[in-house]
Amino acid sequence: MLRTEYPTRPLECWPKMKELRRTLFREYWENQDEGNPLMLGGYGNLSSLPSGVDGRGAGLGIYYARVMRDRDLLLKCHQTMDEMGYGPEICATLRVNLASMFMGFQMRSPKGKLYKPDFIIEFHICDSQSKSTQIAWEHYKIPYFVLEIPLFPPERIETGKDYMVAQMDECIRWMEKVAGKKYDDEKLVESVYNEWDGRVMWSRVAEFQKAIPAPLDQKMFNSFATLMMWGPHQQPVADVLRELCEETRQRVDEGIAGVSTERCRLLHEGQPPWFNRAFLRYPNLYGASYLGSAYLWGLWGAFHADADGTWTVPLTPRERGIKLRSREDALRSLADLALDHSPIVTSHMVAPQVAATVKMVKDWHVDGVVLHIDRGCKGQSAANAETRLALRDEGIPCMVYESNNADPREFSEAQVMDRMDSFLESMGLSRLEAYSSGKDEED
Description:
By secondary structure, the chain is an alpha/beta fold. The chain has helices at 14-33, 64-69, 71-83, 92-102, 127-140, 157-179, 185-208, 218-230, 235-254, 294-300, 327-340, 350-363, 378-381, 384-393, 413-426, and strands at residues 39-40, 119-124, 144-148, 264-269, 288-292, 304-305, 311-312, 368-374, 398-403.
């Protein structure tokens, strides 16, 4: 019997997170029935903005996780896109969501009612994301608004914030027109406070992963990330993230591990193959565990990224004593969040991504890095080849594999796992005689 090296236990806030996900899913369908807008786009980025008209959204579709668990349905989604002439240059995740639209189940509730979204709001960080929402706009023939998240050098960042505020103010006036509702600035202010709180809590949890042993593993993060998709601007989401943060702090104080046999700490850069639920736990067989990644933490978190790649977590506006008294105040706070504290904005740029990963290895006490050359998300994986060279120069072990985060036709499990075996063995690890992770806290 394998001796447990570190104590571990389930997260106490886990049941609350799962119940909140069910509630948010149900409320999504009820929102339009209650006379409020149902929207597409955004993926949780600056989710506060539609709150003034009670808009509900969850990216380009809420059935993505369901499709990832159903291999036959997943393959049918890709086949549908192939037959319609949409090639592999489209982001694989968005390809699946667009297929759900063309196949007619994207906006069909579990009770069978077919809904039509009222409008689309998209934040232009990723070209493929913006283009995909344009395809949805053409399909549904509904109003469509795109906000650009601009890239400005530090010395001109205030100009960028002015530009962001002007765009968001224009979007608000557009929402009033297409939703037929007066925009509620008080709801915006409260939502901005919540969004900051939720994203900072997410970042603090990521910082707690610096502890040895790490209090969580990456699959735990992935499950809580679904709350971020719905939007941290919602008070219940921010509250659960605060509970997660406090519980993770307590786990660090007590030495509670996410993986009881941790003896090797890994980062996984890029999206994992979402359809393979065992992938992220595979290193556990060797006593290794994934802590997270710059992608996972940067997509939903609030960090300030320094030139050398160091990520620091800011205080929230509430903690800084900042009073948001008007629409202008709230929008400027959102612009600050987007341009000063959202690493995802520069994640498609090679130099910042390389610097962040190399520095993260040092700051999070990482032993090795797994880099995904992801044919399904070319933007996120663009820097990984250069990252490999930078890690090699620093003497940091790394492994590269090529696959697709959402298309099993491009994932060779035997080949990737064989490469993983060799990588872990090259680091002096061997398979544990016995291993049990207990109940799989995934979904």
